[in-house]
Structure formats: structure tokens, C-alpha cells
């Protein structure tokens, strides 16, 4: 299997990239990055690209499966317009390149709140991206809508607070289908689906993601 990934330096993307490099069924990984990764690997082909210049990198998006793990925060981006550029336009351009180059399988990390008609900017942006990629008609299109993610050594205070709040509710039996999820577990599930891609579009909501992970963990024991 040959894989292409964007967002390989982010929390989930970095975990997924390591899993891909260790997987014996994967013989090549192309990582499109804005800054060079801090390591090399015999399977890894890094391409430092300007995502605003589509024609300079679109031809690189070739393989069996494409992973879109890119994302930023409003704080880091500095404005809604800048965040939309990264979270929507760059990922949509990546999907377009994958489709033009006949990549059959596309996996996208979205949000549990994604809805193109949502009132809130972030949820609406994620929903619009899902809708736009869906219209491209990939042979297999898998959307992951996780709940709160546990990122190693995160400095996002909002995420830390949300994690503690959700864990409290989980401890009293509430929101069990919305428990915080380590990014490594999400990455593992993405690789699982990429290795056995189902036909058509599939949306994995938070509760489905958690149940799939629990099932796979039990199956591996």
C-alpha cells in the first residue's frame, strides 16, 4: 500500500505517520508538509510544499489511500479567514488532487459537531468540507468525527478543561459515547480502515469510533 498524508506533524497525524511507517503492508508514505519533519525513514518521502500553489504539488498526490489530518486553531491561525484557509481550502485542494490522480480511498478527520448549516463557525466549516469532499465521489470516503482528543503534552487549555469535565461526567455514567480519546487510538482506527476500505461514504461518529476501538482491542487480545 502507498499512502499520502497531510497534517503529519499534528497530534493525530504524527501518530498515524509512525503507524504507517511501521506497517509491513505499507511500502511508501508521501508526506506533504509546510515545514520539514525532524526525522527520516526509508519508506518516507517528504515534500515541503506551499499549499497555496496547487500546481506545484498536486502531481505528488498519488497512491492507494490519502489521509487528511490537517487542522489548526483560531488562536494559532490568528483569524477565522486564516483558519478557514487551512482547515477548509488546503484540505479540499488535497482531496481534489487525490481525486484527479485516481486515489481510490480518502480518509478525513472532521469534528463531532460538523454540520454545514451549524450556527458556529468551526462546526459549519467542518461540515462544509465534508460536503465538498463527498461530492467528489471517491470509491471509499471515510469521515472520522471524534469527540474530545487527548493530545500528548498539549498546551491547549480548553482541551484540558474539556477532558476533565467529560471524564467527570463519564465517572458518573454520563456521555460514555463521548469519552476523551487518545490520538494514538484514533490513528490506529484510521489505519485499520485504510487497510480494509469499505465502498462508499462512511461517517464514524464519536460513539461508533469508541465502540470500534474497543472491539479491535478485544480482538487483538
Strand order of the largest sheet: 3-2-1-4-5-6-9
Gyration radius, rounded: 17 Å
Q: Unreliable stretches, pLDDT < 50, 5 or more residues? A: 161-175
Largest sheet: 7 strands, parallel
**Helical percentage:** 40-55%
Summing up helix and strand content along with how strands pair, one would put the structural category as alpha/beta
Distance between the termini: 26 Å
Q: Count the helices. How many?
A: 7
Q: What is the residue-averaged pLDDT?
A: 88
Q: Count the E strands.
A: 9
Give the topology.
Layout: E1 2-6, H1 11-22, E2 28-33, E3 44-48, E4 65-68, H2 74-77, H3 80-100, E5 105-109, H4 121-134, E6 140-144, E7 149-150, H5 157-171, E8 181-182, H6 183-195, E9 200-204, H7 206-220
Parallel strand pairs: 1-2, 1-4, 2-3, 4-5, 5-6, 6-9, 7-8
Helix pairs in contact: 1-6, 3-4, 6-7
Describe the structure.
The protein is an alpha/beta fold and 221 residues long. The protein has seven helices and nine strands, in the order βαβββααβαββαβαβα. It has helices at 11-22, 74-77, 80-100, 121-134, 157-171, 183-195, 206-220, and strands at residues 2-6, 28-33, 44-48, 65-68, 105-109, 140-144, 149-150, 181-182, 200-204. The strands form two sheets. Strands 3-2-1-4-5-6-9 form a seven-stranded parallel beta sheet, with helices on both faces. Strands 7-8 form a two-stranded parallel ribbon. α6 (183-195) crosses α7. Residues 161-175 have low confidence and may be disordered.
Amino acid at each position: 500500500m502507498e499512502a499520502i498524508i497531510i497534517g503529519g506533524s499534528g497530534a493525530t497525524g504524527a501518530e498515524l505517520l509512525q503507524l504507517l511507517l511501521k506497517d509491513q503492508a505499507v511500502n511508501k508514505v508521501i508526506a506533504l508538509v509546510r515545514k520539514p519533519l525532524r526525522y527520516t525513514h526509508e519508506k518516507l518521502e517528504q515534500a515541503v510544499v506551499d499549499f497555496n500553489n496547487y500546481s506545484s504539488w498536486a502531481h505528488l498526490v498519488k497512491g492507494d489511500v490519502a489521509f487528511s489530518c490537517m487542522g489548526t486553531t483560531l488562536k494559532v491561525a490568528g483569524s477565522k479567514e486564516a483558519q478557514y484557509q487551512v482547515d477548509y481550502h488546503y484540505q479540499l485542494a488535497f482531496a481534489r488532487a487525490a481525486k484527479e490522480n485516481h486515489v481510490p480511498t480518502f480518509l478525513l478527520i472532521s469534528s463531532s459537531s460538523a454540520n454545514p448549516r451549524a450556527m458556529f463557525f468551526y462546526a459549519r466549516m467542518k461540515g462544509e468540507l465534508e460536503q465538498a469532499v463527498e461530492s467528489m465521489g471517491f470509491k471509499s470516503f471515510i469521515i472520522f468525527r471524534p469527540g474530545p482528543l487527548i493530545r500528548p503534552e498539549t498546551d491547549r487549555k480548553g482541551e484540558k478543561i474539556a477532558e476533565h469535565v467529560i471524564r467527570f461526567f463519564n465517572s458518573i455514567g454520563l456521555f460514555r459515547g463521548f469519552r476523551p480519546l487518545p490520538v494514538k487510538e484514533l490513528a490506529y482506527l484510521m489505519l485499520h480502515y485504510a487497510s480494509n476500505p469499505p465502498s462508499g461514504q462512511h461517517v464514524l461518529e464519536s460513539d461508533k469510533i469508541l465502540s470500534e476501538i474497543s472491539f479491535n482491542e478485544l480482538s487483538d487480545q
